[in-house]
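Job type: complex structure
Entries:
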Amino acid sequence: MKITMAHGSGGRSTSRLIDEVFRSANANPILDMMEDSAVVDGAAKIAVTTDSFVVTPLFFKGGDIGRLAVCGTVNDLLMRGAVPKYITSAYIIEEGADFETLSKIAQSMAETAKEAGVTVIAGDTKVVEGNGGIYINTTGVGFVYDGADIRSANCKAGDAIIVSGTLGDHHAAILSERMGIENNIKSDCAPLCDMVRNMMDAGVEIHAMRDVTRGGLGTVLNEFSKASGCRFELDEDSIPINPEVAGFNKILGLNVMHMGNEGKLVGIIAPRDAERALKIIRNSRYGTAAEIIGTVTDGEGVVMNTHVGGRRAIIELYGEGLPRIC
Ligand code: MG
């Protein structure tokens, strides 16, 4: 069955769409009340973030727009030292979208929310004229760990730079789908709750943390540099990259430092905790390929110490030049 404008009317078709697709996937006592807003328990400090997801194709190797819409928001909460608790889900659906497709996406979103330990507490659907497109906005709320103060300005000279795994996977997977290139590259789309919780519970001194999404590691580290007034020195040989992604990048002339992931973080860790943090991440879900890739020093900018013994500045990604990957 196809979605028609009647599914957005607010009448019986809308109720059917909500009941069959969204409520059935996310049934819980808060959502089931079907009130105008959700009233939930809170915490001393909460983290809030919102993000919209417009990726095409809707399904790709390693994930889909529903999984992505949960991971993107959950990971942004985690990066401030918060435990993700609640999420909202708003769909903008173009006329002609497939009912089955929508159900699969809602199901995937529900499964990912369950994996991440977040409850879907509010939702919305709008049907608009168009050509079968589906877009999702999610807003997330997390409870911040007592005393956590994780932010870009806290990076200090001497800190270790850790990435939680191979870079560029999500970007390469989406590009492959878009260009019709056959390969085994899969998106890394994943909620990073386990590794962050394990570090927080162990009292690791995390100064700053970001998920490495649109713009890539090069952009994140340049932002850290500007906020903290420090230099970020990287060792090219220690940057983890899946060999198939490396090959793909070579053919297309892509720089992994500007490629997005959806299941990797970069942590700036106090030197005395660096080895401990690395071990914790490697022992956590989705963190087996973590590496220490460099050090924060006095100075400014981001510098790569290359494989051949040279040094090159890494700048932020500018312009677009790449397809929408999230
Ligand atoms: Mg982020």
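Summary: The domain at 35-144 is CATH 3.30.1330.10 (60s Ribosomal Protein L30; Chain: A;). Residues 99-116 form the longest helix (18 residues).
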